[in-house]
Amino acid sequence: MPDAGQRVLGLVPARGGSKGVPGKNVLPLAGHPLLEYVARAAQASGVIERLVLSTDDEAVAEVGRQAGMDVPFMRPAALAADDTPMLPVIQHALQVLDAEGWRADLVVLLQPTSPLRRPEHIHEAVRQLRATGADAVVTVVPLPRHLSPDYVMRIEDGRLQPFLPEGARLTRRQDARPAYARDGTVYACWRTTLERFGTIYGADCRPLLVDPDDSLSIDTPSDWAEAERRLTARAG
Known about the structure:
By secondary structure, the protein is an alpha/beta fold.
C-alpha cells in the first residue's frame, strides 16, 4: 500500500461551457459562487495538499483563485468540449504538474456540481483508500428498492420482461437486492490506478456510502433550485 505521506492532489474540473445551467460554475448559489463550496470542503477536509482548478475559462479561473484554489494552467480547448472524457483531463493536470516538479501520488476528483459535499466525505475517502490499499474509493448512494436491477423491467419486442433473469422470481420489491448509484461527490484513486488501468476505478474500487440528503449533482435548473433549498436549510 502506498505511503500515507504521499502527495494528495484535489482536482476540480470546471470548464466554461455549460448547457444545462449556463455559467453555473461562477453563478452564486445560496449567496456563494458554486466553486466556493468545493473549495471550502476540500480545505476543511485536512487531507488535500494542493487544490488545483482545471478550466479553460478565465472568468472561472478568477473565481477559483478568489476561493483559494491554485490555477497553475489553463486547460486546452480540445479538453473542454461537451463530450470530453474525464480521464484525459486528469492526465493533463498530472502532466503539467509533473513538468513544474510537483508529482501527485493520490488524486481526489471533486466536481463542483456536487455542492452538498462535506469535508468528512473527502477525508473519509482518502482515509479508506489508504487503509484498504484499494485502487479507488468512490461515493455512492442507495437506490430505492423499486429501482434495483432485480426489480426493474425492460421492453423486448414489445413485451415487458424482467431486466435480469433473476427478477422473474420476485413479486415484492422488498425482496430485491440493494443497489447503489455513483453520485459524483468524491472520486479518490492512486496515480498508479490511472496509469495501470486507464480508469479512475481500477480493479478494486471500494464504496463510500453518502447520505442521500448530502447527495445532489447539478445538471438542470431544477437541480440548482433544489441545491439552493438544501443549502439554505443547512445554513439555517
